[in-house]
Amino acid sequence: MGRAGLEAPPPSCGVTVTPGARGLQGRVGPRPQSLAFRGNPPRASSPSASARCRRRCHTMAFVTRQFMRSMSSSSTASASAKKIIVKHVTVIGGGLMGAGIAQVAAATGHTVVLVDQTEDILAKSKKGIEESLRKVAKKKFAENPKAGDEFVEKTLSTIATSTDAASVVHSTDLVVEAIVENLKVKNELFKRLDKFAAEHTIFASNTSSLQITSIANATTRQDRFGGLHFFNPVPVMKLVEVIKTPMTSQKTFESLVDFSKALGKHPVSCKDTPGFIVNRLLVPYLMEAIRLYERDSQTCGDSNLGLGFSLKGDASKEDIDTAMKLGAGYPMGPFELLDYVGLDTTKFIVDGWHEMDTENPLHQPSPSLNKLVAENKFGKKTGEGFYKYK
Ligand SMILES: NC(=O)c1ccc[n+]([C@@H]2O[C@H](COP(=O)([O-])OP(=O)(O)OC[C@H]3O[C@@H](n4cnc5c(N)ncnc54)[C@H](O)[C@@H]3O)[C@@H](O)[C@H]2O)c1
Questions:
Q1: Which among 27, 46, 185, 296 is placed 20 to 30 Å from 236, CA to CA?
Q2: How far is the CA of 343 from the centre of ligand 1 (A)?
Q3: What pTM was estimated for this model as a whole?
Q4: 88-273 belongs to which homologous superfamily?
């Protein structure tokens, strides 16, 4: 799709708006007669009366102009205050999270455009979505495989792909960004999209650790910018953290909450604080697990009696994983989870928080995490992380 013509977006394609509260209450702006017609009507016969009349006519014209202006600015304000019912979604980033978000949005009746940097990545994303949908269909339509096939085909048909984000956001209701966890890259993306997206379009970031405000600052639509933090794997995990910055309008926040519900998710809200709720608690736990495993090697038991054994760290990663699953009831151990989330993503988060608060022991960098990332071992997605995957 060419970019020409995108500067003038088509009228609110796919947007349904509900009347804002001000509109329902009816009165917006000042009542003109309360200023213009106070007192007795002027008598046109005497010169002073006609001068008074001219003054009053000027006053009326001025008040009328002011009223018209206030009406039009109020209607602009109330237009921007209207809740967006999201029908068309653009998801930027077709990796772990973006593919999942696109899948769930399409499966719940939204039209979706999935954007990534290359056609190869997009082909891989779509293949992953299809496989995931087949699993969903197998369960959901266990009794009726034909209906399951139709569900998969129909859902896939509502996901278009593109390698040029700017060319596809002109009529979208919502942009959900799920690209690399790097503020500069996110800022560059949103700054560009801000020029091409429709006026009503809401921008949301799926960042795990960055402040939404610092991403939104790259745009001129801070009131239509919020956080939508999904969890991995998106088709399975019920939670979405909806983030309202001090600049996010209430209507934008409500639109994002409604969208999360339309996806069948359970939204919770959180202020724009690093890590929001889940990662603020989860990431220090994951890092503490790595530190437990990293601590200096030691010999336990009595080697003279042949009972000595060597431990690298306080416990092996396998034992730490088993302990947290069987002892704490977690579905995955911390190393399994780290590999699943992506070691690159975890490193971005920890490095960012460490930079903001260098003294905090919870956010100290980890040599083994750094080493694995330097070797491009990002976890499951690259075939190796703390564990190897076939
Ligand atoms: N992995 C998780 O468990 C998880 C959970 C919640 C939130 N997040 C957040 O979601 C975001 C994405 O994480 P992920 O795990 O899906 O990463 P990922 O590495 O799997 O995918 C990122 C994708 O974005 C693409 N990309 C990078 N720059 C781009 C650009 N400028 N335009 C278009 N596409 C671009 C990459 O090619 C890649 O396919 C990050 O901000 C991360 O913090 C991750």
A1: 185
A2: 12
A3: 0.76
A4: NAD(P)-binding Rossmann-like Domain (3.40.50.720)
